[in-house]
Amino acid sequence: MRGILASSIGVTCAAALALPLAPPATAAAARTAPTADAATRAAVTAQPDVPGSTQSLPLRTLTHDRASGAAVLGLAPRAVRHFSLLGVVWDDPAAELHGRVQVRTRAAGAGAWTGWQDVETHYADHGADPGSAEAASGRVRGATAPLWVGESDGVEIRVQPEPGAHGADDSPAEPPAGLRLELVDPGTAAPPAGDAADQAADEGVDQAADEAVDEGVDEAVDGPRTGVMSAEATAASAANDGLAPLGATGIPALTAEQTRQELLTLRGSELTEQQRAKPYIGPRPAIVTRRGWGADESLRERQFVYTGKVKAAFVHHTASGNTYSCSQTPSLVRGFYRYHVRSLGWRDIGYNFLVDKCGRIYEGRAGGVAKPVKGAHTFGFNTNTTGIAVIGSYGSTKPSSSAVKAIARLTAWKLGLHGMNPRAKTYLTSGGGNLYRKGKKVRLNVISGHRDGFNTACPGGKLYRKLGTARSTAARYQGR
Prior knowledge:
- This is Peptidoglycan recognition protein.
- Residues 1-27 form the signal peptide.
- The protein is an alpha+beta fold.
- The chain has helices spanning 11-17, 27-32, 36-45, 195-202, 207-214, 231-238, 256-267, 273-277, 290-293, 329-343, 401-416, 461-464, 467-478; strands at 53-58, 60-64, 71-90, 99-107, 117-119, 142-143, 147-161, 180-185, 250-251, 287-288, 312-317, 353-355, 361-363, 385-390, 425-429, 441-445, 447-449.
């Protein structure tokens, strides 16, 4: 995703952005009364815990850029309810935000503010295909990428105009209408099994886990959770029927032979005699289900939408930063889910799968991990594909070996269900975008990066350069 040049801001702007957390008051009042910040903080923290919520704060004019005269929008420092993920949204999904978005946050309870962090502004390359029912719902909004900041109770934001960005009359480009800051509290949920292994991988001890999968050893997963399931939760879990019990928090790994038998059960009637005799498919990896990461199934649309088959996998990064531990991954996934559905207006989380830096795989959009669920991940190429997002930002940071191997494991299995060779190329028909016109047949790698289907830097240069390794490893897992 493209880098953005910062605009110069005058002394007036700098002063405005350095506002104290409490509003101006007389010296006497400041000595005799608690600050507004203290009062606000007490009010919001006194409220009962919320099982996931979104605060939406309209952005205001702070000052004007000295060079262009364009408005600098944002919010002065303020106390808010606890949140862990943020992003900026606006009304028109076709509009672009020509500017630099920077935020700083205050750690909950600690009182320490972070330095300024950039929010990735280009997110239009994600989403449902043009003309699809999801894109035409009337609920979809433009947005930045989400940024994970950890549990916080204070925020400050500024949106600086981009130098050289002009409107039709050569005046400074106006920001999109309806700019607002979304603060997402992902809520709480019981963590899935495997925390000890995740922690070891988080610390760089991932060799044993890699070797276990290479040898086809089953990975432990939780059994079904107790408690009454809603109709939506039951439907989402039932979509994985045959892979795990109803209500299971994880789908266990299978050996190569077990996976081949599963393939014959799932798709045997569609296979040729040669494919039945020697199917090329990798061992099924362990997958944390939506119930495992704590999805609130009431947020999404009830119906599942499928495509014909899975001919290719697009690899993404979430561009949400790398300052997370693997024990926090379920919270991140719940945050992305809420941001995609409540803030962006999508029918469900956009990705079909998510992978954390410990190599753990998470079910994304509902409908069944073995089925060709249509996602909203690669604008123009969501038909006959699956979207895999590695959690983090990989423009200048290398992905972990565990994450790359997880991509290989997942694609060896998922593509193998549809007879696709991870090292091959295939033809996809564009649904429209900034690289290929609608209806154009495009020859792409069966495992492609997001940038192959849209003019974007996603999945980051460091991750993109690892896709060759993922292709060859996936082919090896398939026995090719």
